[in-house]
Amino acid sequence: MKTRMILLLAALVPLFTSCVEKEKHINVSPGQLHGEWIQTGTQKYWTYNSDGTGNKVDKSEFDDGDENNGDFEWSVRQDELRHVFHGRQGNQSIPKNYTVTSITSTSMKWKDEYDRTMTFSKVNTL
Fold first, then answer.
1. Does domain 25-124 fall into CATH 2.40.128.370?
2. CA dihedral for 62, 67, 73, 74, sign (positive or negative)
3. pTM to 2 decimals?
């Protein structure tokens, strides 16, 4: 009887695990990011240059030294977008990683390591 129960459970396990939706990964090319983007609901502008540099400016905060503003280097591999901000917190380089969940020529969504989603609209193409 115990053996039958174990066999029954072993047969049911694949059914339950196959119902779990697997996370879909997209391939983002660097060219899709080039340009200036505004974060929805904010005055935060993100600029992605073709040479892998960028800049983030919160136009609601006019202090260039504010940690919400600054230059960064960026790279993308599949759906992983990496920013490295320089000169913050004692001149340290601060990496921040995001997962791009969707991107078109005019809109982009990503999520951070805490599963917070951010949406963007493209303002300019560089």
1. yes
2. negative
3. 0.74
Domain range annotation of the chain: 25-124
Instruction: Name every residue whose Cβ is closer than 8 Å to that of residue 75 and which is 6 or more positions away in sequence.
Output: 30, 52, 81, 82
88-123 per-position pLDDT tens digit: 556 678 899 999 999 999 999 999 999 999 999 999
* Amino acid (1-letter code) at residue 21: E
Concatenated DSSP letters for 43-96? Answer: -EEEEE-TTSEEEEEETT---TTSTTSEEEEEEEETTEEEEEEEEETTTEEEEE
SS3 content of the chain, % helix, strand, coil (to 5): 15, 45, 35
